[in-house]
User: Fold this.
Amino acid sequence: MSSVVVGSIERADAPPDASSPAQLLAPDGTRHPHPSLDRHVADLGPAQLLALYEDMVVVRRIDREGVALQRQGQLGLWPPLLGQEAAQVGSARALRRDDFVFTSYREHAVAYCRGISVDHFMPMWRGTAASGWDPFEFGMAPPGIIIGAQTLHATGYAMGCVKDGVDSAAVAYFGDGATSQGDVNEAMVFAATFSAPVIFFCQNNHWAISEPVELVARRPLADRAPGFGIPSLRVDGNDVIAVTAAMRAALERARSGGGPTFIEAVTYRMGPHTTSDDPTRYVDPLEREEWAAKDPIERLERHLRSEGALDEGRRARVDERADAAASAMRRACLALAEPEPLALFDHVFTEPTSWLTRQRSQYEAYLAMFEEERR
Amino acid sequence: MSEMTLAGAITAGLRHALEADEKVVVMGEDVGKLGGVFRVTDGLQRDFGPDRVMDTPLAEAGILGTAVGLAYRGYRPVVEIQFDGFIYPAFDQIVAQVAKLHYRTRGAVRMPITVRVPYGGGIGAVEHHSESPEAYFTHTAGLRVVTCSTPQDAHWMLRQAVASDDPVLFFEPKRRYWVKGEVSESMDAAPPLESARVVVEGSDVTLVAYGPLVATAIDAAAAARDEGVSVEVIDLRSLSPVDFATVEASVRSTGRLVVTHEAQQFGGLGAEIATSITERCFAHLRSAPVRVTGHDVPYPASRLEDHFLPDLDRLLDGVDRAMGRVNSLTGWTA
Ligand SMILES: Cc1ncc(C[n+]2csc(CCOP(=O)(O)OP(=O)(O)O)c2C)c(N)n1
Ligand SMILES: [Mg+2]
Assistant:
């Protein structure tokens, strides 16, 4: 009797970091050739790399300001992206204006690269409004807090692109933890079913709050996608060149009718989960140190310096820009007006209902009574 | 007796439950090493091991669905949902499976699952972290739904919930987690899980509250007393089933009813209590029942939450409405 072996049973227990991710730029700044990815980044010369470098420095600075503002009581919460700059900048800069991204909450750098001004980052985290920008203006949905839900939205958006005969793509950004959610797995089933031009961009930063990726992954996360019929790539998420190449490859497939791609960007969450978290309870400082040596910005800096493309003067100008962005964000945060109480009732429906109109006017009368009493 | 926070009293309750019955298992996101984001399970994995206190994959449907399977196998899962707004992925498992299996199998299969849910607002959180979804579950036949307002009740009710052979949704008022009180770890004086409690006696109006608003209601009763109105405050404790006998007895003597909750008004607990009490003792009502609740809008951005949540003044306004005194609907000139 012959037996049918499904998958490679001998590898069923390979740890999630078993296969080494594609890397074009080593931590020491050396550029390594890559057989399939090089052609996607052939145009990245010193000027383009410098632009990516500047983006990463700016978003790291903005992120630091977000943490500081929260510590000073100006923001309710801030989820830091520290360590994930290359994954976010490399992927977002590969996109076109007409593409659409659906992210979770940590993707400040994606928002920045979509052209969303830092002012718009503030309302949600300060708590003056539920979101800060018009999704259609920037091709970016509001940050999603419900883990994994946005992956289905990206898939549906991509299905719409196919129906409309346009070659735009949708991108779902989500984390390693999110891959456990039913929604994410359903999104992959739908994407494969409808050959949707969607890119599943998974930032494996090794943590879902306190749960290490090893808890849920017996094999690399990227290995899951082929089972759904979705090609996948595992790239060094701290290598902005590799991430750019992977995203461009995926976009090329999406735009040419090839359907979805799953990218696992292997990176590390260098900060706490959010400003409310205490990672000393669960992070091994040695592991964090190992990842610090693979820093995405430092490695590009080494590369640019070795190429003679970055000197002290240029570095200083980049820092100035980063500081300017951070202080613009701080100013915007402090300048945010307190919302009007009755704004509470706005936008529940496209047109106010009689029930809600009555409730609103009763609350208005209630507030007015207090005003009168004060006078 | 020892002094505990409300959160600490639940931790102590979990500890008792784990010690008392080896079939009790705790499961949820970050409940292990981290001890949960509110530290309610702090130290439990260390002391009972990862087989009894399990960090689960990040998937609420998965958590509840596997809890069902564990219950089939004779386990008594105590599940933590990290925040109120994250229970919805598990909704299907809870309402279509957990709630119905005993009925569907004509009593052969029991679902002694406890679902712990930190709920409610007032902590300045971002979206999905401040919701009060209790009415979705009280509307579902086959689920017990309870909530506590003091450390003592938190302790007693958690242990009773785990011991119950029915599934129990255990809502924890997260903004009161750090409230302290004396807690007895003996169950001898614990009232039945489904009983309500009169926490302030009064004669003019019955104010029914639960969870995070019980403390607000007690403050309102004190303020009303200064204005010459005697408010009786009832802590409902069990939201399904409701101890209507206690509420009815109170309303029969006061003749007036105010119900308050953070959750939105439409189709909420307030509607059910007002209607049931009206049906039971209409002739004793001297004025129409009043609801003081969250507005029928999605839970707002945190800088607006004070306008969403019922507070002392809104409760007093509700009391004034029930009493026929000057209130926000009549205006000063009435
Ligand atoms: C449905 C749902 N369940 C639980 C949470 C609480 N929660 C917020 S972030 C998080 C971990 C997410 O990990 P991952 O997907 O790896 O993203 P990362 O935070 O690392 O960027 C959890 C459990 C949530 N926001 N939504
Ligand atoms: Mg993660």
The longest strand of chain B covers residues 257-264. The pocket of thiamine diphosphate (ligand 1) is lined by residues A 106, 145-147, 174-178, 205, 207-209, 269, 273; B 29, 58, 60, 82, 86, 89 (CB under 6 Å). Residues 6-20 of chain B form the longest helix (15 residues).
